[in-house]
Amino acid sequence: MTKPVLKNASYILVHTPDMIIHNGTTYQMEKLGNPDSEFLKNVGNFIRNYEEVVNYAPNQVYIGNKKPEELNDVATPWFENPVQGTREGRFGEIMPQDEFIGMLKIADSFDLVKLTADFSKAVVEKLKAHELFSDAELEKFKDSEEIDSIKTFVNEHHAEGLYHMGELVGCVKRAHEVDSSLTAHIMFENLVVKASGVLAVKHLMKNSSVKADEIEYVIECSEEACGDMNQRGGGNFAKSIAEACSFTNATGSDTRGFCAGPTHALINAAALVKSGVYKHVVVVGGGATAKLGMNAKDHIKKNIPVLEDVLGGFAVLVSEDDGISPVFNTDLVGRHTVGTGSSPQAVITSLITMPLDKGGLKITDISKYSVEMQNPDITKPAGAGDVPEANYKMIAALGVKRGDLEKSSLPTFGKEHGMPGFAPTQGHIPSGVPFIGFAIDEMKENKLDKVMIVGKGSLFLGRMTNQFDGVSFVMEKNDGKGEDKAPQVDEQQIKSMIADAMRKLAENLGQ
Would you say the pTM of this structure is higher than 0.70? Predict the structure, then answer.
């Protein structure tokens, strides 16, 4: 069997200021329950502009322009200390809202997205200058709508409005008259997942030596559910993204596991490659508009900008061993089982030490742990603390208990074997996967030996179980030795082995 490797990864952000207000769950729930609240009146004054988002240090880390450890050199809170950022990054980009609304049109297969002529014209000019979009994709903008027609769709036909800089510029129509799974709001959310996933995959393939027609399978692992009233989560985001990215020889399916979904998906992809079912598998996760401005109330109370103002997306290519890329060690997989329990120690033991024990490894043998890489600028004002720091403290404490490190090493463990959180709170996006791109680069440069990716999820959110969830895996520097092949035995050796076995059988029968 071949060794599965992680060939490359991409990461994208989309600045979506108007979507915080018109599509984020926090704002919409407040509007329904408390329409005269001060929060609704003031939130617009706390939303950042595009330049501020680009110059925000954690965002520059996420797209690969800075390394996570460089955040240690930026004074906190990071939103008060901008850096010089760029739209383009080593792993992807930070796309502005207007271009992304244009991507919704490109992602639309059922003529549900309607845009005004003026907005379409302006966006087409921008996307023409973007290296990732073809003339065929831009052909979708040839049809446009008058603003009065769009207003009619929104006001009289339950369409979801699309806004840019506070102005109505288009809408997403409902896909069925009565199906509650095909409302305009849900179609909008689904198109956002697809479009942001497509953007991530486009960047993945731009930086890959593998051609589009070599991709055989796609696994989509975001937190939305695509279907109709007869199969609400049937899918398939994966195949729709494959189609949009011209993966003509690929099929695919969706994997769901809340925040742990991406790690589950990567384990599935590695197993498919190792077994020889597929040679090249893409794992992709699109963004979630519901989580825009999720902690905005707490931020505004503390006079902090609404920092959850970006959609996140990522894509990872898992392939057969190329002798160079980091290896996905399928022998070192951790899992939170039904019988594990939900105490912090039980969770960490199942995800961290259980796979390490399989390989006879100590906690300190892992160069870096990528856990829940939530940005503390966002989580601390909301009362959740520094999530990565808390995880590293638990891992270090377990290491001391096991005798893997000295108690004196507790204060420095997080810095040596971890990193500051830098990912947007998009649920599945921060959970382990944001460091894979850096790990691939640094393993190829012989700067890292082993990295553990840890995904955790809260299954109880679905009200089907009180169970917690989590899975983990170890990626290792490639030794360049190639495939895991069984020793070759020639025909003469086989004949000799059979003759020897028959002789011993005859002797036993004679006795």
Answer: yes
